[in-house]
Amino acid sequence: MAEAFDIGARAKARCDQLGVAPYSEVDGQLTRRFLTAAHEAALTATSGWMLEAGMSVRRDAAANLIGRYDGQLPDAKALIIGSHIDSVRNGGRYDGPLGIMLGIDVVEALNRAGRRLPFAIEVVAFGDEEGSRFPASMSCSRAIAGTLDASALDMKDADGVSVAQALKAFGGDPDAIASAARKPEQVLAFLEAHIEQGPVLEAEGLALGVVTAIAAQKRLMVRIEGTAGHAGTTPMNLRKDPGPAAAEAILALERICRAGTDGLVGTVGRMTALPGAFNVIPGAIEFSMDIRAETSATRDEAVMTIGAEIHAIAAERGLSATVTLMQALAESPCDPSLMNLLDEALADLSLPARRLPSGAGHDAMVMADLCPVAMLFIRCEGGVSHNPAEAVTEADCALAAQAMLLFIDKLERRERA
Ligand code: GLV
Ligand code: MN
Ligand code: MN
Predict the structure, then answer these.
(1) Residue 380 in contact with residue 96, Cβ under 8 Å?
(2) Is the CB of 360 under 6 A from ligand 1?
């Protein structure tokens, strides 16, 4: 007989297990980027857990790990449950993996009860939600949704390795990437459970929430070019230093986003001075911009205004600037009928049906191009995320797993009706 397990709590424990080397690239912190040895180690462990839960397991050409628990008929449509296995640099343990591990717990519970449904359940570990290795993100879910542009395979990491090269070395197949795409008729729906990554549920004393929509986002790279020079010999008034211009540009971004509406936020998360030395006036400064809002229109207006300011700041100082779009994701509403099923699942657990939008990006926003999507948010301590201090409780994880099982019951009833 299989050993008993605490549903949800075990999912959390598995995230903790994956929080250290060899599931992290770096000892003493969790950094698990796409197509690294740490990614491979995490997929190997997760694959074993999927098999134990009663699933058949495969990897597709884009390095997605997919466990399938067949329905009553072998070719039944699938409810896909999933999230991402990759992390940001020095990230938390639950952002992504928790949604995968909860999916595995839920399948194991169904399997132990000997339950087969009118639909299959597939649990997917996407590999590239964070975009922490290559400049764009979500290439794995895009491959499944059939929306991955072939040019995404040419993107290079900081060492000049392309996605195609890294994917091949990982055992994926960039030439057959199109084979990862699922047909809408194969997929019933997508469900992603994820920590909230914000403070709302905790502030209201709630364990779970139902996501209404995911914010629109754009990733851009800015390069401000000046003239490299000697830090000791070049008088201040004769410099073409892009550093202070970059500082002004970031302040402009902050001012514009602070004055914005519709959840407008802007972040400069990465910045490089080139060539990068104490005693060299930089020849160029490069920095990333991540701009998000509830609507693409608000986001785009801000991107235009910030871009115009950056060009004006550079021109004022006799410098040149380029702003390059790396990725655009439109706002993505969740499916109203699936939101209702999640509300009902929460009501069955005597939990209020709190609906809230997501400022964070998720694979669900890409999967929405393929099928109806639903997202369940789980309270996290202090709303802290993208930080090693990320924390959830076992009790909340258990409630999330129960809500997912109830959602599946309700979906089954709906499909049989
Ligand atoms: C992923 O966590 C994102 O929102 O960028
Ligand atoms: Mn994240
Ligand atoms: Mn995430």
Answers:
(1) no
(2) yes
